[in-house]
Amino acid sequence: MTPNVSDGATPWLVAASAGVAALGVAASWFGAQAGAEVIPVPWSDLWDQAFGPPQWRVLGYASTTLGAVALLLGLVTVVKGRRAESKRRRFDFAGLADGSMREALLEVQARLEQCLDQREPDLVVAFDELIRGALKVEASDLHLSPQGGDLLVTYRVHGTLYDVCLVPEHAGRRLATRIKVLARLDPYARRPQDGRLQREVSGSLVEARVSTLPAEGGQRIVLRLVRGSRAVPELGALGFEPHIVAALEELLSKPQGLLLVTGPVGSGKTTTLYSALQHISQSRGRTTSLVTLEDPIELQLPFATQTQINAQVGMSFAQTLRSVLRQDPNVLMLGEIRDPETAEIAAQAGLTGHLLLTTVHANTAVGTFARITEMGVEPFILASAAIGALSQRLVRTLCTNCRKVAPPDVFIVERLRRLGVEHLHGEYFEPVGCEFCEGQGFTGRTPIAELLVVTPEIRQGIHERLPGEQLHELAVSRGMAPLVRSGLACAQRGITSLSEVVRVVG
């Protein structure tokens, strides 16, 4: 228990170290009297920096009055130790049919518990097991959320969340610190942070966008996973209806203009933009200079120059966009329009010989124009710059092995009527669940979308500040199929269900 103090340590540091050693001995004795278990684990990184090698910490809980007194004296730290293992909540994935996904989740759970139940949890192995399991079940996101002092591990697979296991508090904090360090974030900061990490697991290079957020009981961490070897899909292979693909290709052939894409987080907007850039690169060849401004860069594109936004060093979207416009680009991809300054520069770029693709937070294709004007861009400038707006969502695709024809539910019919669908024609399928789809009834996701092509009439409507509903009606009269119609067409082809369309659209 004697601390290892360097020769150059100051007297107060030596005294503090000796005091900690004495305190540790006393705490061990009190803990033993209280029925607590003494387990050697490292102090926090800050303690290591101050006092050298890891010391011994008492981890335990009070089972007697004497133990409670020790706790009040601050001599015993209450954590979920090894005695709590038998009480640890387990997830049996009862909602999943016996199959590869259930087996994979159970395997991840077992491997993680094996790592974390050791006296010195191997967090390197534990983190790799988390990533390996996520890849095996094709998870798009990995969530770590504080829950009663522990850390709840959750995978998002095809839009559905699956709880995997609980990481005990003493290991959870260190695991969170490790993720922050790998993502080059400040491990001690109690503020929202965003970063990126790369990790080779089972021979695959995995990239992840990392987002941290202070929460009750700790920090919530979300990793958006991307396989490093993933290729950018062809525009026609994304799953859009043929007429939308054709209209998009025509818009992308234009020499200048502003193309806006909107949709919720995780709806595939960035993938659509990447595919659009790839289409431009393939169709125009070396005659076109493509530059992207992203925060963060999600996938390496061999056909474009990609720039990472970093506001902390003066590289905001607006400032970087100004600089890039002096670099003689033909096509620009802007990760997102977030502020009035960026909106103004983007609109001007669309008027001065640049084709600019970007995302905007709005509910509909028409809503993107209102959002840009709300940021201060004059309607006449936007009307001249805009060439189109795409609103997209992802719906789950039915398992073709077990789907069945079923009459539309009365509740679903009523919801569709509120969305403007008066009559349903043909037969529709609903999910059932089988061994092939793990009892879920769905096996993947596909996009539905509405694409508004700016015609002279639409341009005039934007210029005149037409209300959103009138502009939407005008767009529909000029050929735009609303989002719910796209979903309906998807359901009519047996790709998804009506209930899924209603869930996603409204």
Describe the structure.
The chain is α/β, with parallel strands linked by helices. It has 2 domains: 99-226, Beta-Lactamase; 235-505, Rossmann fold (3-Layer(aba) Sandwich), CATH 3.40.50.300. It has helices at 11-34, 45-51, 65-72, 100-116, 123-136, 169-182, 242-252, 269-284, 317-324, 340-351, 365-374, 379-385, 410-418, 456-463, 468-477, 483-492, 498-505; strands at residues 59-60, 77-78, 141-147, 150-157, 160-167, 193-201, 204-215, 218-227, 257-262, 290-294, 305-308, 331-334, 355-359, 386-398, 404-405, 429-430, 442-453. A 7-stranded mixed β-sheet has the order 11-10-12-13-9-14-17, sandwiched between helices. The protein has a 6-stranded antiparallel β-sheet with strand order 5-4-3-8-7-6. The longest helix has 24 residues, at 11-34. It is globular. The N and C termini lie far apart (63 Å). Mean pLDDT is 83; it is low at 1-25 and 27-87.
Major beta sheet, specifics? 7 strands, mixed
Query: How many runs of DSSP E, i.e. beta strands?
Result: 17
User: Percentage of helical residues?
Assistant: 25-40%
User: Helix segment count?
Assistant: 17
Taking all Cα atoms into account, the compactness measure Rg is 28 Å
Unreliable spans: 1-25, 27-87
| Beginning-to-end CA distance, first to last residue | 63 Å
